[in-house]
Amino acid sequence: MRSLLHAPGVTHLPGVYDPLTAALAARAGFSAVHLSGAAVAALALGLPDLGYVHGTHIADRAAALTPALGGVPLLADADTGYGNALHAVWTARRYAAAGVAGLHLEDQVSPKRCGHLAGKELVDVRVAAAKIRAVAEAATGLVLVARTDAYTVTGLDDAIGRCLAYVEAGADAVFVEGVTGAAELAAVHAALPGVPLVVNRSEAAGADVFLKDADLAALGVRLVLHPVAPLLAALHAARAAYAAIAAHGTAAGVARLPWDAFTGLVGQGSALALDAQYAVEVPA
């Protein structure tokens, strides 16, 4: 993942949520993927992204899905580090043990609110920078993305100032939540020359007009996150299937993955072949 931050172009990271979505993303040819705290809260707990999820939930989910990625690096949401600098270091170590390649750490007050909700509060920049420094000095090998939510709370100038402090503390890249427009990205890029930028394309932000990849790359953007798009698509399809069964007694009219594709995705053929290879006939 670190090499992607220094590549000349933009890399898109779709959200993955379990071994099957991880396998689908890997087969689609993505160079990296993303695991969202909001998605884990929804799928593991059936709850909104309002501080219910802990790093243990994310790490456990990551450990379950990383084998299906076949080496494709995973960037995981680390929220606020789930406490102080000590807790942030523990979180980073747990993520590294789970096979995560990188994390993003934000500067909201813990427990945080979803990045697209009003009422967010920020910790002092010195407190947030101390967490970044602690994680960087823990030497887990993880790519460290510093996220700030200051743009919609205290404005762009404060967001840029915070990013400067986080890079000084050891962040590999910065993620200014809410900034997707050319003028704002240009300001961030000018203040942080050579620092890779990360942007978010979440449906929670509404129907923004997004810049083309070439324009993003020229503004220093290297990673574009799509944290919930596949999840929303899957839920839309599931809702259609449930509605069809309820109304007609069959899902025949709903587009579905063919059964053979499903069994191929879960590795049924190779599992049966392995079972046959080691089968032993016991005399009656």
Automatic annotation (TrEMBL):
It comes from the Bacteria. It comes from Dactylosporangium maewongense. This is Methylisocitrate lyase. Transmembrane segments: none annotated. SUPFAM superfamilies: Phosphoenolpyruvate/pyruvate domain (SSF51621). Gene3D superfamilies: Phosphoenolpyruvate-binding domains. InterPro entries: ICL/PEPM, Isocitrate_lyase_ph_CS, Pyrv/PenolPyrv_kinase-like_dom, Pyrv_kinase-like_dom_sf. Pfam families: PEP_mutase. CDD domains: ICL_PEPM.
